Amino acid sequence: MLKSAIIKNYNNSVLLNHYTKRFYSIDTLKSKTNNKNVINWVEEQAKLCKPDKIHICDGSNEEFERLTSELVQKGFITKLNPNKRPNSFLARSDPSDVARVESSTFICTKDKVDAGPNNNWKDPKDMKATLNPLFDGCMKGRTMYVMPYSMGPINSPISHVGVQVTDSPFVVCNMKIMTRMGDEALKSIKENDKFVPCLHSVGAPLKEGQKDVAWPCNSKKYIVHYPEEYSIASYGSGYGGNALLGKKCFSLRIASVMARDNGWLAEHMLILGLTNEISGEKKYVAAAFPSACGKTNLAMLTPTIPGWKVETVGDDICWMKFGKDGRLYAINPENGFFGVAPGTSSSSNPNALEAIKKNTLFTNVALTSDNDVWWEGLSTPPMKAVDWHGNEWSPQSGIPAAHPNSRFTAPISQCPVIDPSWNDPKGVPISAIIFGGRRSSTIPLVYQAFDWKHGTFMGASTASELTAAAEGTLGQLRHDPFAMLPFCGYNMGDYFGHWLSMEQNSKDASKLPKIFYVNWFRKNKNGKFLWPGFGENSRVLKWIFERCNAKGEEGAQQSPIGYIPAKKSLDLDGLDISKDSLRELFSIDKNEWLNDLSSMRKYCSQFGNRLPKEIENQMNQLENRLNEY
Ligand SMILES: Nc1nc2c(ncn2[C@@H]2O[C@H](COP(=O)(O)OP(=O)(O)OP(=O)(O)O)[C@@H](O)[C@H]2O)c(=O)[nH]1
Ligand SMILES: O=C([O-])CC(=O)C(=O)O
Ligand SMILES: [Mn+2]
């Protein structure tokens, strides 16, 4: 009787006082912030989602401990062997909730053309009419967690803040690692500051007495962005890219729109510091590769060539704004790594292995008999393990033990090669930008743009063979301009235009980063990689570094597609690679390139009059150069 009376009052929006009395935690929020918009927005979400409880996250280690122990107690996650991996946990997702769902990801603008052919679109009013009944009561039986967070160093002029509400404690634990989340972030949101509101629910309300499951989610999923109001609503998934809304939803889809509106760049790029230890000179490089194409690996690379050092600023996202000196300064808006586990090993990426030794959350990897984690490529397979479905597994099982998109979530500060400036509010000045994709043919190991316009065209023409990071057919080639196809929050034609406009926005175009394209994934006729990759990619970084310092064509040779390394300018000392492989790695096949170009033309035609004229010019110029070749 009493309970139903409370629920009745709770559902009645007029009885707000009554409701705040009961839910002391809104008072907690009020005691911590004087930003009325934050308070009102959280109240509105509570009224809509109707959680049993509200918890305002402070972002402390105690909070993390409490939430993880609760999840362990319920049997929803597994505590790993504390002697091997202190304060680390394994979660197994629902088998249907293992990757981003691009087909259920929407950009809701008033005009469809503003979302572009690169996005699923729905009118914001219609989308809200669809979502409201879904969110209504979606947190019944659960706690609503309120997470204020900063993307980027607290109070940096390049950073931006958000507030996410969620009914998933596992999401809270991930967000604590991936962002600067809690009291400090809330304090940085001043009285009249704007923030990005992020509503998230796994879409699995609990009826009274209903037993919960380890990974609640809903077969109906909606990952929704309202670029015109800089806000996000995500329903039905607990998986990283769909649920940690600071990541792809805010830092790329919404931030790309903020960046367009204000003359900066929000990109799917790693950031690394590269030092020539002999001269002492250091440069920062940003690189965009599609999902699961090597950003984390390049960001933490251990050079195989002596005298060179790589340090990590970020492995996935990069925000760049112009500094007073006219250069582009970058921050990594994130505070952790959400990395692909399979393939990570002491030979491919020892620094990542070091970074995930403690305080790490694992999703969908295998569990060994001594309560540690394992995945394909880590080491020789264990005799037996528990696979990501929770079933007994042995090497004879004939299926992978870890999901190909299984991930680790680890604090960036644990990376042994973390850059001293990774948390600097000023950001780091970028000297070179690299694009790349997974291409088994056509694209050489490395080449350089003639200028910014040509570089923009190179970014626009990025294409890659599909990986497990998204739904779709593995291996299929798709255009993925700037590695932003799933992440650009507006019409990609306009996005090309925005990149081109950076040349005019810069006070001095000569200070813009130099632009390069790389391909670690070219294969020979037997399907074997021609280039050893990983640490050996330092050879390519060295060439890029030297090209940034070079006068004119020093170290380079003109080709129809751009500058390629001149003879002997790529350091191959001590590398075991055949002359044939090298020739193949750098071969430029006119017909393959013309095919690529015609595929690009076809791809670009969908943007209609939103495609900048300059991109057409670039395509025509490339065609002319190829025909003369
Ligand atoms: N052959 C080859 N494979 C590589 C290289 N670098 C990375 N990989 C493989 O590519 C896969 C994904 O690499 P990551 O570095 O995690 O990719 P990412 O771009 O950070 O991925 P997201 O987190 O999805 O954005 C792993 O299986 C790596 O082993 C390389 O230089 N050569
Ligand atoms: O967002 C995710 O799920 C992981 C990621 O970095 C990507 O897919 O690029
Ligand atoms: Mn990514």
TrEMBL record:
Protein name: phosphoenolpyruvate carboxykinase (GTP)
GO molecular function: GTP binding; kinase activity; manganese ion binding; phosphoenolpyruvate carboxykinase (GTP) activity
Sequence ranges assigned to domain Phosphoenolpyruvate carboxykinase C-terminal P-loop in this UniProt record: 264-625
InterPro entries, alphabetized: PEP_carboxykin_GTP_CS (IPR018091), PEP_carboxykinase_C (IPR013035), PEP_carboxykinase_GTP (IPR008209), PEP_carboxykinase_GTP_C (IPR035077), PEP_carboxykinase_GTP_N (IPR035078), PEP_carboxykinase_N (IPR008210)
Family: Belongs to the phosphoenolpyruvate carboxykinase [GTP] family.
Entry EC number(s): 4.1.1.32
CDD domains to which the protein is assigned, alphabetical: PEPCK_GTP
Organism this protein belongs to: Tieghemostelium lacteum (Slime mold)
Residue span, Phosphoenolpyruvate carboxykinase GTP-utilising N-terminal domain: 40-260
Quaternary state and interactors: Monomer.
GO biological process: cellular response to glucose stimulus; gluconeogenesis; glycerol biosynthetic process from pyruvate; oxaloacetate metabolic process; propionate catabolic process; response to lipid; response to starvation
Record key words, sorted: Decarboxylase, Gluconeogenesis, GTP-binding, Kinase, Lyase, Manganese, Metal-binding, Nucleotide-binding, Pyruvate, Transferase
Coiled-coil stretches: none
Gene3D superfamilies, A to Z: 3.90.228.20, Phosphoenolpyruvate Carboxykinase, domain 1, Phosphoenolpyruvate Carboxykinase, domain 2
Cofactor: Mn(2+)
Pathway: Carbohydrate biosynthesis; gluconeogenesis
Top-level taxon in the UniProt lineage: Eukaryota
One GO term describing the cellular component: cytosol
